[in-house]
Design brief:
By secondary structure, this protein is an alpha/beta fold. Helices cover 46% and strands 12% of the residues. Bound molecules: uracil.
Length: 214
């Protein structure tokens, strides 16, 4: 500590050091934040969903990814394994990701809710509100080039919209104050029920690919 600092300390006056905003320091902050937010999610009791969960589903993948996929909420398999999109719909999402020349390990995948709603019901507004800050922080840390909102609930929650899927898909939106490019695609669970709609996801992802190449 400097002489001046010692003098202030002896007088009982708090002193502050200017924060080091160098890129190295920024990276340290980024790395340190992941365990902190992960532990907050693991121990979260903000809404009643924590009472029925087996595991929280934090999200996983590349923390420096260009592509950030956001689903709705964990289902039965995800709740048991603590990983997003690992059931039947998840296997189809993996194929969708593969179709754009990427692997699951290259993208980041998370959900709007980190806990499973009972019987896979739709998330309640209050649950989304209470959980949303975790996702925002994850997006903030990953800094993706594009967000893919998977399904209606993810799309409407991210975009603060109540438009139906038909009106949300097919164009690039902006998420948050920094307007991160965001594309909406049909949920793989819907594609499993309506396989004839699969081509629309392929078309929509082409919009994302073309956008990123610009
Ligand atoms: N559906 C989702 O939206 N997210 C998952 O993690 C699994 C199924």
């Amino acid at each position: 500590m400097s002489m001046g600092g010692k003098l202030f300390q002896s007088l009982g006056i708090d002193t502050y050091k200017l924060r080091d905003n160098s890129p190295k320091n920024a990276n340290q902050t980024k790395d340190n934040d992941w365990p902190r937010i992960e532990s907050k999610v693991t121990n979260c009791t903000k809404c009643s969903l924590h009472k029925g969960r087996n595991k929280t589903v934090f999200g996983d993948g590349n923390r420096d990814a260009d592509w950030f996929f956001v689903g709705e909420a964990p289902g039965k398999d995800e709740d048991l394994q603590g990983k997003p999109f690992v059931g039947r719909a998840g296997r189809l999402l993996t194929e969708v990701i593969f179709s754009i020349g990427l692997s699951r390990e290259e993208v980041f995948i998370a959900n709007i809710l980190k806990c499973r709603p009972p019987d896979n019901r739709d998330p309640k507004t209050q649950e989304v509100e209470q959980c949303f800050a975790y996702l925002e922080r994850q997006i903030d840390l990953v800094k993706p080039k594009i967000i893919i909102a998977v399904g209606r609930i993810a799309a409407q929650s991210l975009l603060g919209s109540d438009l139906p899927m038909g009106k949300l898909r097919g164009r690039i939106h902006g998420f948050g104050s920094s307007k991160i490019p965001t594309l909406v695609i049909y949920h793989p669970a819907y594609l499993l029920r309506s396989p004839s709609q699969k081509h629309k996801v392929w078309e929509d992802l082409q919009i994302a690919n073309d956008f990123l190449k610009k």
